[in-house]
Write a structure and sequence with these properties.
Elements: H1 34-41, H2 62-69, H3 84-92, H4 105-116, E1 134-138, H5 148-152, E2 158-159, E3 167-168, E4 188-192, H6 205-242, H7 253-276
Helix pairs in contact: 2-3, 6-7
Length: 279
């Protein structure tokens, strides 16, 4: 796009959702027209807490929870961890420093110092620099509807469907920048929305809580979709196994036995993953 870029810098890898994050089939959660959702929600004040997103991450100890609560929850991954909760756990376990969160800025380091008893240190430049709050903006004249930004957004703040123009729901964007590198036509820019305010001076606890809830809801949605995908594949394999000759071009009994063994092994792995709760 032709808009100037404003980046806060720093490397980073990259729900049951009240506003669907993508226009694909989503049988485990309510679907809605993405364009209608965007028109309805653009500029509307942030939604309150959802019943399914409590802010409590299972398995976290008390210190990790307190650290997580002190993080801005942009889920930008610039700290070097997949999300804010994992960074909090790493700090609590002594496996990460307290100066790896650029969105939290200097004040964020001070908050973590107070919680952990560690000395205040400057932000690690490897993780990025403190900056203002930014908003992702999609240039509709260049958007090709590839859905890659939708998949990258940690808070489902982008709506659209395949080969249709996408748009950002402004109150839900954390300025994480994860949508920018995946865009193949470079149609996403960042606009500063906090003026000269940076770090926690540009971001409120209410926004952080909303971002946490939306991220957790997205994680739940993706897990639900993956379970349903695995169930569909398992049902397809079972149907094929029930009448293998009808589903195969081969008639040689030995070849059919080998195919049967392969399908049975795949089914056994799928069932084992499901029972272990890791699918």
């Amino acid at each position: 796009g032709g808009r100037p870029r404003h980046r806060r810098g720093g490397p980073g890898p990259q729900a049951l959702d009240p506003v669907p994050g993508q226009g694909s089939r989503r049988p485990c959660c309510a679907n809605a027209d993405p364009g209608k959702a965007a028109r309805r929600l653009r500029g509307r004040p942030a939604a309150g807490p959802t019943a399914r997103a409590t802010g409590i991450v299972p398995g976290m100890n008390e210190l990790a929870r307190r650290i997580d609560a002190a993080l801005p929850q942009t889920q930008c991954t610039r700290c070097g961890f997949p999300d804010c909760a994992r960074y909090a756990e790493a700090i609590a376990a002594g496996q990460a420093d307290i100066n790896q969160c650029p969105p939290g800025g200097v004040e964020g380091v001070e908050r973590l110092s107070h919680l952990t008893g560690r000395p205040v240190t400057p932000l690690n430049p490897h993780n990025g620099i403190e900056g203002p709050l930014t908003l992702a903006v999609i240039d509709e004249n260049w958007c090709i509807g590839c859905t890659l930004c939708i998949k990258a957004c940690p808070t489902d703040a982008i709506v659209g469907s395949n080969k249709q123009m996408h748009t950002v729901i402004e109150p839900y964007c954390t300025g994480c920048e994860l949508c920018i590198p995946v865009c193949p036509v470079d149609c996403i820019s960042l606009e500063i929305v906090s003026g000269e305010h940076t770090g926690w001076q540009a971001w409120t606890p209410a926004q952080a809580q909303q971002a946490r809830e939306r991220y957790q809801a997205r994680v739940q949605r993706l897990a639900c979709e993956e379970r349903e995908r695995a169930a569909r594949l398992e049902a397809k394999a079972e149907a094929k196994l029930a009448d293998l000759p009808a589903h195969s071009l081969h008639t040689d009994p030995a070849m059919l036995d080998r195919k049967r063994a392969v399908i049975e092994a795949a089914l056994a792995r799928s069932r084992a993953r499901r029972e272990a709760g890791t699918d």
